[in-house]
Design a protein that fits this description.
mainly alpha, elongated, single chain
C-alpha cells in the first residue's frame, strides 16, 4: 500500500516534484497503517513512514541549497 500511494501521487505525476509525493505518500501510508491497529509492528512501520515523510523534503532542500552554492 505505501509503495502504491507514493508512486501514484508523486513519482509518476508531472504536476509536483517527486519529493512531495514521497512526503504525502509517507504521511498517508503512516495514517493508513495506524488505522489498521496499534500493535508494535504497526507502530514501528508508521514511525518509519512518518520519518520518511519528514526527512525526504528536508534532504531535498539541503541538496538544492548545496547545488545553488556550487
Amino acid at each position: 500500500m505505501p509503495t502504491l500511494f507514493v508512486v501514484g501521487t508523486g513519482l509518476t505525476a508531472d504536476r509536483w516534484p517527486p519529493v512531495l509525493g514521497v512526503a504525502a505518500g509517507g504521511a498517508a501510508s503512516g495514517l493508513y497503517t495506524l488505522a489498521q491497529g496499534h500493535p508494535v509492528p504497526h507502530l514501528i512501520m508508521a514511525a518509519a513512514l512518518f520519518a520518511l515523510s519528514i526527512t525526504a523534503p528536508a534532504l531535498a532542500g539541503r541538496r538544492r541549497r548545496a547545488a545553488r552554492a556550487e
